[in-house]
Design brief:
With 191 residues, the protein is α+β, with helices and mostly antiparallel strands. The protein is built from six helices and ten strands, in the order ααββββββαββαβαβα. The strands form three sheets. Strands 1-8-3-6 form a four-stranded antiparallel β-sheet.
Length: 191
Amino acid sequence: MEYSEQVVKLGLTLFEILSEALGLHPNHLKDMECAESILLLRHYHPPCLEPELTLGSSSHADPDFFTILLQDQMGGLQVLHEDQWVNVPPIPGALVIDMGDLPQLISDDKFKSIFHRALAQNAGLRISAHAFSEHHFSKKATQDSMAPLRSCFQKKTTPTPIYRETTINEYRTYFNSKGLDGNSSPPHFKL
């Protein structure tokens, strides 16, 4: 329980940092109700006898704001950097923060989502704990709109946003229909 409480506190701090990085008041994203829900999951990956024949999880970008990941010592996480897969070695006690698709959409590409994958391994069982910053899923929230923040595109030479407005429901429906196909969601919402 203490871990969950600390991860929620960290998540709220990350929303403040993201707001400030966009030149906004620290509570801006929290006031937009972006921090209403943090989903905690654990992943269990048993050892794979022939890891070269499979992939733990395919290349994808998370559909949320960010993911806070606690890896075990088995590793297996890779991120795509300059068109190359790079291992993210586990560091005891360290957390990995993975930027999702929603900051890319609302920041009009000032932030970019991170493509990542998990490799299957035969060395032993792998356990990881994930905290996803989900926009809350009440009936009202699914009709809430998400769009590039004006402050992110008004100062451009051509003050037009890259992405169109969408609802949380439309956004989620699109992500769920495409699955983990190696593509992020924001390009689907380009103007």
